[in-house]
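Inputs:
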Amino acid sequence: QVQLQESGPGLVKPSQTLSLTCTVSGGSISSGGYYWSWIRQHPGKGLEWIGYIYDSGSTHYNPSLKSRVTISVDTSKNQFSLKLNSVTAADTAVYYCARDKGVHYDFWSDPIGYYGMDVWGQGTTVTVSS
Amino acid sequence: QSALTQPASVSGSPGQSITISCTGTSSDVGAYNYVSWYQQHPGKAPKLMIFDVSNRPSGVSNRFSGSKSGNTASLTISGLQAEDEAVYYCSSYTSSVVVFGGGTKLTVL
């Protein structure tokens, strides 16, 4: 079965760029039809969606983070990545990657539902501090 | 996109049923059947429990059920068990954006 694993620095200095990678195992990131997603959770708080990259390469981001976020995919390594620039202490959080199965359609190609995020990584803690 | 509104906490005794509400707007929860529910135990990643308002992924107990009325979605857990104690998040997908609720802490007394 598909598994996801986040990796990257656990400590980032203020104003620098946070860079994380999610490695997909047990399946191909190019298999199609999935939204490869990033979600974060501030200490003791709820979930915050960051964004996703669709297998066509198109991206969608949380409007509140859009100006600082880039999500990309490397199909040769079966990985997708998150870059968040100009970080501050407010970006300290546990960062999760997830596979989102996205919208599904009926016989006439009309959207009828949304599958949700069915596979998650274990999460990685990133602290922003000097 | 504003976060969806959930009660901060609910509680119930083993064997009882509880319901967690998730209130959005006519632009998100009320507009489509794109509501999902996630369970998160302390220190663990969230787990998908319900999608399409009321569908369960394979392997999720049928004690978990979902519904929607207007702009409010609900998650019902019947036959409460100690292992159900966790934080539950609702989520809505609208216009290519995902929004989560603030989370509800379920305590099994």
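Chain B has no helices and nine strands. Flag for discussion at group meeting.
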